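Example (one chain per record):
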Amino acid sequence: MFKELKQQVKQVLVESVNPRDPVNVRAHPDNWRCVGVGNSAAVFQPKDRPNLSIKVYANTHAWVSSEEAEIYEQLGDSPFFPHFYGRGDHFLIIEYRPGRNIYDCLVQGIYIPEQVILDVEAAIAYARNRGLNPSDIHIKNILVHEGRGYLVDVSDYRKKGECKRWESLKQAYYEHYLDLYKPGLSVPSWILETIRKWYKANEGEGNIAVFAEQAKRMFFD
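Predicted structure:
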């Protein structure tokens, strides 16, 4: 399996134009589908191996693959994270888990139950108990499936310092989302992108709940 996948990865071209923006996928095998993109890599699902995800890094970020592989090994097996199978020079082979990320849930009007928040809390506690420092947890790397939550993209779990992003998201959930949500209510993607840019403009010092309150007044009152 590994040898075959390694040959197929050679057909993948992932480019990073701006480190703050998602990578561009220029090419991939016909029988692979792209299931997600981040700022350093894209994730693919081979149609003939639907239980796998292949995370391929842009050449400029190839070094991240070894760090993330080590983090998966440190996490071990957990229901909160995908199983890790192995790595190549600039790619990882991990378990494919079904579900939608929170971003898509908001855009598509899919309700996010509190159990998802509790699962993320448990996942963070588990990772800390394994000696890691979960960071950069945002609405695109929290997946929701059958009312439960789990995390993908663990590449920043060895960063130093305190990351306040999850605490801000949790605050926004309890103080704004639960009040706003009505069955079928969707949040336009441009509103979410506006909030994201407001938050990033403050380099993590801003409070996403404040931005959410502004957005609520602007677009939902």
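Caption: The domain at 2-95 is CATH 3.30.200.20 (Phosphorylase Kinase; domain 1).
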